[in-house]
Every structure is written in structure tokens, then in C-alpha cells.
Write a structure and sequence with these properties.
Layout: H1 9-12, E1 32-33, E2 48-49, E3 70-71, E4 74-78, E5 81-89, E6 102-112, E7 127-140, E8 149-153, H2 155-158, E9 166-167, E10 170-172, E11 180-187, E12 194-208, E13 216-228
Parallel strand pairs: 1-13
Antiparallel strand pairs: 2-4, 3-5, 4-5, 5-6, 6-11, 7-8, 7-10, 7-12, 9-10, 12-13
Protein name: Fructose 1,6-bisphosphatase
Amino acid sequence: MPGRFSPNPRTSRTLVAGALTVLAFGLTGCSSFMPLIGAQPVQQNVTVTTPTPTATPELVFDSVFTDMGSIHPTLMIGADLELQLDMWTEQKTHEWYTDSDKLFSFVISVFDKAVPAEAPFASKRQVFMSNISVTATTSTTSGATVSPFVLDTDPTLVTLDPEALRSDNGLLITSPKGGFQLESNQIGQVSADTYGVILDFAMTISSESVAGTGGYTTQVVHVPVPVAIFPRA
């Protein structure tokens, strides 16, 4: 399992093989379940940090991507508990044309900010992900919307790491021992009047309240990522 996924999108597509010591998780104990977030973009007590859109004259959609197609939004999912989504595309953002195949990859990790980064892993709160869904919703000049891409899966079944750490709560995503990566997700052709798409990343997350106690709180969090779509010249 990677020690930590690199923020460099090209580098993060390669999983670093390491000598991992399988952790004996203390997963017994009482768990609580927080109300799930239905159609709401994020839970009320969760805040999203959205990067400022790149200023370009032809940008007609509130895209958060850089010209080279990468984004790193963060989301506080608890006290001093930060979820990071690293997403990158196979093309420059301005090459996401209506009639092209649009590929993107992403990594999801959680960082326990309550302890120093170099602190022993046992002192960090364990966070697991039991479901990941990504839904693309288009914006068009006609007002019609479609979903050209829908992903809804158990991350333990599709993780690229054969030695990924998991439990009844799902896949471990606490850095540096845990994380989730999925590559080359494809959005196909969209209608000619499409000028944007919003990718909604929804994750079912179980977070340890206190490190080592085995008591977890579960919630569903959303990270929306708007991407501009361009007509081919």
C-alpha cells in the first residue's frame, strides 16, 4: 500500500509496492450511524474547500480544473479529520470535447490532523470507505440533463492494491497505510449543446471517534467537481 499518494497526478497512477505489516484492527465495540445525506451535496456540519476556477476567456462553465486537468479538493469529515480527493484527467481540460471520450482517474485518502504526520500509525484514527459512487450530470443550453457516467461500487472489490487493508467497515483509507485509487473512468460522448458536467463523488465513510477504540461513526459525504465541456473546433 502506498505510504501516501503523491499529489502529482501522473505519479499517483502508479501504486507503490511496499513491505506492509498487516494491522490487527480493534474493530469490536459499539458503532453509531449518523443520518445519511440524501440529495444534499454535503452534510450540514461538513465544509468543502473548492479551488478557485482557472480564469480563461472561453470558460463558460464554473470548472475547477487547471488547464492540465488536475484537482485536489479537501473535505473535513470530522474534528481534524481531512478527506482529500486527488483527481486528474488523461487530457488537458480544454480537450474534454462533446464528441470525445473523457477519461479521469482519482485517489481518495484521509489524514488525521489531530496528530503529527510522522506520528505512529496506531495513534491515527482509522477511517474506512464501504461504498463509492460517482455520477456525472450534464448542463446544456437546451436545459436537458443526462447522466453519461454512473459508478456505484464497493471499493474493496475494485481497489488496485492486492494487499489493501479492509474490515467489516470497508476499505481502510487513512494515510499512510490506506487509500483508494481508480483509474481511467470514461465519460463518453454527450450532446452537442453540452457545456459542462458535474461529477458528484459520494462516499460512505466510517470514522473512528478515538484512535484505537474501535467505535465508529458512519456518514455519507459528497464532493462535487464541475468540469467544463467544449465543442470541437
